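Read as amino acids, tokens; as here:

___
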Amino acid sequence: MLASAQGVKPFQKGDRVVFTGNSITDGGHYHSYIWLYYMTRFPDRRIDVFNAGIGGDVARQIAERLQTDVFSRKPTVVTLTFGMNDTGYQLLKGSKADSAYQKAVTTANQSFSQITQELNRYPQVRKVMIGSSPYDETSKINGLVLPGKNAAMLRIVELQQKAAASHQWDFVDFNRPMTAINLAHQQQDSLFTLQGQDRIHPYNDGHMVMAYLFLKAQGLSGVKVAEIGIDAKSEKTIKQENCRLSNIQAKKGIISFNYQAFSLPYPVDTEPRGGGKQLRSQADGLKWVPFTDEFNQERLSIKNLPSKQQYRVKIDSVLIGTWTGQNLNEGVNLATIPATPQYQQALAVMHLNEERWSLERRLREYYWLQYSILKPKGLMGRNGADMVDSLTTYARKDFFVGATLNTFKTARFEPVRIAWQREIDVLTDEIYDINKPIEHQITIEPIP
């Protein structure tokens, strides 16, 4: 079972989507990968996506910041995930573990009731419940295992699913499908996990799996980048899905035509980016889910070519590959070829999106310190030099404060935060300026 959902509607032009959660959202990429799909597949359907994750949050803390950190962004869609921290990290067994987890689930549900009341104050905002990515108890990687933790998390997922059904909210489950992937691959490699070395935080390949699950739940599987079909003999179009073909010519065995796609291929990052010691990249996620088959197809097929003849395929004079007539008759997927001009255009979108993500991460580090460290002490919003001194002292006993202290030293100045947000806005505007597909000329010529 790779997807479990109840009707997650696709995002529409003008949507403002706030992804709300804990550290997996805060420092993660899944929402950025989802947005990248919309940036490339629907270039004229501008949406804006916001990260409202705070590392370490439980449902109660999410409830407390809904107004200031979520609804202050004027969302049209809010997603919500929690459960990892709510179930705790106690190493207990037997009846003691059962009792502790029962109490944790009950507490989370009480806070979820508060969240529900707040969400219902905004009937015009669409809500999407996300069942948390799992805690991996079965991988044989080194480190502590907390038996029963994921089962407790699943009880929270069930509460979310029931609430979604009751309130007519959308729902998608990350937990069960990701657990199924873990168990399947652990049959061959006992050390395999999508959750990273701590059994909690997915690497970027895991976040790509999460993006796949979300997009599949939105019913977007099978939506092609484009499909090109041409009959070499008749010089006629057989297929033009999500594209426009023109000026088709076949002279001396050379076929050429103009190709205007309405989408860009989905560019996949091969670098292990992000917080912590990332060991795997977004591209590694393609090994675990059929994203390419379902979401990234830009098919080119040329019928009635001699099957054994070798052909050179160029786009705007750029050689993108050689295939036999039989290969071209069956069809090739241009979306997986980085050399194509359209993929290179998409890569620029991807890198701008990564720059945007990096800037947003700085802001989230600042807000993490505010919500997780200062707010519980009644110091929310304190940004003076005295607070830098206090946090410097505190950082000696808290690794996470130490890791984010330099960001706070800069971001405590409001003009800096405003400038970062403006830069994010500029990058987003630039993405939606450069993501419009342009017309190309495709040439298929026989190799002597």
Remarks:
- The radius of gyration is 24 Å.
